[in-house]
Amino acid sequence: MGQESFQLIAAMVLRETSIIYDERKDYLVEARLHPLATQAGCASIDEYVRLVTINAEERRKAIDALTINETSWFRDNAPYQAFTETILPTLMANRTTRRHLSIWSAACSSGQEAYSIAMLLDQHLPAGWTAEIVATDVSTAMLTRVQKGRYSQVEMNRGLPATSLVKYFTRVGTEFEIIAPLREKVRTRHLNLADPAYPGIGTFDFILLRNVLIYFDQPTKHGILRRMHQHLAPDGYLLLGSSETTLDLPPDLNALWDREQLGRVQAHRPATSTPPRPITTAALAGA
Amino acid sequence: MSSIAAPEAADVQAVTEQVWSSFLGDEEPLIPRFMEPGHPFDAEEVWSSAISIGGGWSGTVTVELSANLALELTRVMLALEAGDPISDEDLADAVGELVNMVGGNIKSLMPGPSVLTLPIVAAGRAAHASDAIEVARLDAVWAGEPVRVSVHTRASE
Amino acid sequence: MKALIIDDSRAMRSILRRIVAGLDFETFEAANGQEALDQLNDGLMPELCLVDWNMPVMDGYTFITSVRANQGWRNITLMMVTTESEQGQIVKALAAGAHEYVIKPFTPDAIVEKLEILGLVGRGIPA
After folding, report:
1. Quick one: which of A249, A257, A256 has its CA closest to A222?
2. Of A42, A19, B35, which Cα lies nearest the Cα of A52?
3. Helix, strand, coil shares of chain C as percentages rounded to 5?
4. In a mutagenesis test of the A interface, which of C113, C118, C120 is the best target, namely the one with the most A β-carbons within 10 Å?
5. ipTM of the complex
6. Residue B55 phi, psi (nearest 5)
7. pTM
């Protein structure tokens, strides 16, 4: 593909997804656009790129194809074990009247994290309880992937028990698609964590903020952790990535958080010396 | 005119790419290229391998590689050192497994149940009979070396 | 721990052997289900079997049903490694007693993660 075509595409991808393709990766771009070009009846990638600039549907498909991202299901295992063994039972014990859980996958990427939680909820959430998972990402292309809920064979091999594969997915061509009941539990929303506020996102019982803070500078990272505190229930749990710590926080931010060890996982919880607010009938009436 | 069931071009590419990157890694990617239909495979020395699918769907999956690529693939799959000699049997084992994986995946895409034959490997270009119909083809380059994956059926099937 | 790798493809056995030997398994190989059963009957007791589906003489599905029919072999973990990727095939294999299932092509990471799920390496995930 010509240099001009490559730069056009790279700029488009950067704008939509914040993913940077530098010139050394032009072969990757070409490889991923090739089947789309063929399907669209174009004789060359350059011709296809011209089509992409004027056709919104093709543009969407092209961005989709260029943001393939392989991550694992139940990544690192321990956080999901902590969820099932400790976080879920503890949250449930404090919500016996309302019987609802809100969960936020705060940098959801292609959705394996959100759907992994959905699978565990299907297995462990008792009848009479409801749960909602909000999956947000700065990349609209990723959000589309989450909405579609389709994964390649290679992605399906990564950390997903075979019994869950057959229970929660159906095959579509070379891909596997998550079944509707689980797809319906996950709501996607565009959100840039670096924004100064997250209007309307709501309050959550459990937030996963895994392996994303590393992409931000210190001030932004601190801002995100302040905002997370605002959107987490007083008895809620925040999980970061396995190798992420929150050392070197400014004292006032540090004071907002307690750290609790759950097995091999460290959870952050809003620092509080008072017990969780009891649920009153007045609150329920207004809820 | 009846329609012939055939794998989608995008699926053939996806399958081949996944087989390639899983076993040969991501550093050198498989780069698709455009070639006119009927254009013969353009390497001086070629190894080819074919596997047939029969049952719910019948067809043949053929892989052609330049000899250099076949040697490199064999070295990687069998973990042979740079200086180790490579025998015909080594090449047959590696190239046969390549077409087995591609063919097996394509079989899973088509109406079943079907069975796979054992792969046949030969030194030389593939030749297809006059009543064989090409229903899908991927031409690509890996580390500068050409590879072709093609799928054929017969008019009567 | 011991791993028995059952696949009619020498190249595939070679690939799996390297991955699994790197995880400190002592490896054994068989080119089909019958050869594998012969080794078990001769007293080999592997903790793990990696089983291809399509093989001459005895296929992987038949091997798995044979192993699971024998009480003395109930502690052997059976993981299929195959190109068979239709839902029905995976269900059939699990119903016959396979503990895990890897679709070819796979990366070494995928095998490691499956072995973690099985508790043969590292820690497993919640049931």
Report:
1. A249
2. A42
3. 40, 20, 40
4. C113
5. 0.92
6. 130, -120
7. 0.82
> For residue range A44-89, what is the model confidence (pLDDT) as tens digits?
889 999 999 898 888 888 887 776 555 889 988 889 999 999 999 9
The letter for the amino acid at C50 is L
Closest approach of C125 to chain A, Cα-based (Å) = 5
In the prediction, which pLDDT does B143 show?
87
pLDDT at B76: 87
Query: Which residue carries 């689980």 as its tokens?
Result: A182
Taking the CA of residue C42 and the nearest CA in chain A, the distance in Å comes to 31
Residues C24-38 pLDDT 10s: 899 999 999 999 999
Neighbours of A216 (CB within 10 A): 14
Which positions ≥6 away from C56 have C-beta within 8 Å?
A: B118, C8, C32
As to burial, measured by CB atoms within 10 angstroms (0-12 exposed, 13-18 middle, 19+ buried), residue A144 is middle
* DSSP structure string for B98-149: HHHHHHHHHHHHSSS-EEEPPPEEEES-----TTEEEEEEEEEEETTEEEEE
| Average pLDDT over chain C, rounded to an integer | 92
Q: Kindly state the tokens that stand for A274.
A: 């008072």
Total residue count of chain A as it appears in this document: 287
